[in-house]
Amino acid sequence: MAETDPLAGFAADDDVPIQYMARTRAYYQAIGYDVPYRWAHYTGSPFAPLSKPLAQSRVALITTAAPYDPDKGDQGPGAAYNGGAKFYQVYDGDTSRDHDLRISHIAYDRTHTTATDSGTWFPLPQLRRLANEGRLVLAPRFFGAPTNRSHRVTIETDAPEILARCKADGVEAAVLVPNCPVCHQTVSLVARHLEAGGIATVVMGCAKDIVEHAAAPRFLFSDFPLGNSAGKPHDDASQAFTLDLALRLLESAPAAQTTVQSPLRWRDDPSWKRDYNNVANLGAEELARRRAEFDAQKQRARALREGVDSSASD
């Protein structure tokens, strides 16, 4: 009898969730930033169970995507990182109509996705469909959470503002959809604040290490490239399944810090996981180019932010 290989059927060794915190730390060190970023870290989480069945609960959508503004440069599919399209204050929008939200202002995976389908980062149409089917009650507004590297600003300014607007709308649950690495931290901090305020939450995301490091109360993990937290592009079945799984988690999580992994795969070949900000794949010339580009974008963003702060104080 032929011997059976005990490893037959095992996944490839590198077919594991990307370690975004480690990748990001190594990347910024490689382009010349010596002080590592300190990611938000908690070992416990607030937890607010749904107070009534989901079909009777008012659900809000919280996004890190930005409203399209034609005066802010290229924000189209495949656009290079565009710091000028960032927003720095919480905004909201009417859920009864469609919106053109883009993700050119954040560091999604531009190698393996091209941002051609907003359904992968802004599942409002899917939520409207479920509301029409009686699965939930859709809140009148969705909310935009600024992607902020400052823990203090997110915790002390943006999260309380989102909670206040949710309370004003009678929101009882929220679905939060991040895109870039820092986005995942931002929405995790917002989710914690909402739960402490009595609103049940679920984060739909692709950066498992960041969300769990921040101890988000409920997390649906999709092992997809950043920018696809709500499902695969141009794949309605994937997007519907992903949102349904998130809502089931919202209903059934037994305790805080519950993570569920979607069974969907981006593709059978896991090689895409080796690329995002991986310094092993970048030469000195490319690293220098990226440093110069990052510095330029940072200057532009600083000028825009100072303009926003100045307007707010006028």
Could you describe the 3D structure shown?
With 314 residues, the protein is of the alpha/beta class. The chain has a domain at 54-261. The chain is built from 7 helices and 10 strands. Strands 1, 3, 5, 6, 7, 8, 9 and 10 form an 8-stranded mixed sheet that branches. Strands 2-4 form a two-stranded antiparallel ribbon. Helix 3 packs across helix 4 (181-196). Mean pLDDT is 92; it is low at 310-314.
Helical percentage: 25-40%
The helix tally amounts to: 7
Report the count of strand segments: 10
- Contiguous low-pLDDT stretches (5 residues minimum) are 310-314
The value of Rg in angstroms is 20 Å
Shape: globular
Element-by-element helix/strand order = HEEEEHEEHEHEHEHEH
Largest sheet descriptor:
8 strands, mixed
Output the structural class: alpha/beta
Mean pLDDT, as a whole number?
Answer: 92
Strand content: 5-15%
CA-CA gap between termini: 83 Å
Organism: Rhodopseudomonas thermotolerans
Protein name: Glycine reductase
Brief rundown of the structure:
This protein has 314 residues and is an alpha/beta fold. 34% of the residues lie in helices and 12% in strands.
